Description:
Blueprint: H1 2-26, H2 37-64, H3 68-83, H4 94-109, H5 114-191, H6 201-244, H7 246-284, H8 288-297, H9 300-308, E1 329-333, E2 352-356, E3 365-370, E4 373-378, E5 382-384
Antiparallel strand pairs: 1-2, 1-5, 2-3, 3-4
Amino acid sequence: MDFNVKKLASGAGLFFTRAVQYTEEKLGQAERTELDAHFENLMSRADCTKHWTEKIYKQTEYLLQPNPIDHTGARIEEFLYEKLDMKAPSRVTNAELLGQYMEDAAKEFGPATPYGSTLMKVGDCERRLGAVEREFIHTSAISFLTPLRNFLEGDWRTISRERRLLENLRLDLDACKARVKKAKAVEAKAAVGPDFQETRPRNYVLSASASALWTEEVEKAEQDLRLAQSEFDRQAEVTRLLLEGISSTHVNHLRCLHEFVEAQAAYYKQGHLHMLELQKELGRLPNAFALNSSHAAATPGSASEAIDSPGETETLKIEEVQAPATGTRKAKVLYDYDAADSSELSLLADELITVYTVLGMDSDWLIGEKGNQKGKVPVTYLELLS
C-alpha cells in the first residue's frame, strides 16, 4: 500500500512538472528543445501517410459496399466472427439478389412467354455479374484493404505511442534544463561574498550554508539532466527508425495498389463479356415490341390492304433487298457479332460498314453491307456516323 501511494505521488508530480513546462512553452516563457529538420520531415511524412491511407481505406470500403447500413452491419458481423475464430459466410450481392428475383418472376409469368424468357436470361446474367462482383470484393479485401487496415491498426499505433513517449521525455528534458538554469542562477547569487559591514556572525554562517546547499542542488539537477538527455536520445532514435519505416510501407502499399487494379480490371472485363453475351442472346429472341405494334395496328380496313398486298407480310429475303439511292449511312462496329443464321451479317469490332433501313423491318435491326456481303445487323452493336 505504501509503495502504491509513493508511486501515485511520483506520477502526479511528474504529470504536474510536464503540465507546467507545456504551459510555459505555450506562453513563451520557457525554452523548447527542437528536433532536427530531417526528423521533422519524417514526422510530417508519417502524418500525411496516415491521413491519406485512412481516407483511401474508408472510400474503398464504400466502393465495395456502397450502402452505409450494410457496411456497418458487415463490419459488426466480421468483428463477431473474428472474435469467435470463425470464417464469415459470403454475402449475397445486390446483383445476385436481383437475378434471383428476375428468375422467380420469369417462372411466374411463364418461361415460354417473350417477357418471361427475357427475364430468365437477364436474371441469369445478373447472377453471374453478382458472382464476379463477390469475387472482386473478396480479392480486394484481402489484397488491398487488409494491408491498409494493418498499417492503421498496427504500425501507426506503434508510431503514435512512441511519439507520445518522445514528447513526454522532451518535456522532462526541458524541465531539467530549466531547473539547472535556475539552480545555477541562485548559486551564483548565493556565492557573492557577504557584506562585511554586517556585524552579526550568524549571517555569515547562513550564507555559507545556503551556498553549499545550492551547489548540491546544481549537481543533482545536472545529474538529472544527463539522465533525461540520455533517455530522450534513446527514444528519439527508436522513433526515428519507426518513422523511416514509412518508406517500406509505401512500397508495400504500392504493390497492393497494383493488385487492386488487376482485380478491378478483371472484374470489369468479365462483366463486359457477360453483358455482350447477354446482348447477343437477346438479339436472337423474338421482338415482342414489333409483334404488339403489328397487332395494335391491325384494323378491318388494314386487313383488306394486307390481302391486296401479301408481299409485305412475307419473310424478308436479304438477297432480294437493294440498297436505296439515298439514305445509306456509314456505321462503326462497336463489338464483335456472330451471325445467328444466313440472314444476318457477322461483324468485327472497329470495322466500317454501310447500313440502311428497309420498309417493314424491325427497328432494332438494319441492313448492313461490307464488300459483297449483306445481312441484318443489330443496331445496338453500331455507332452511326454522320
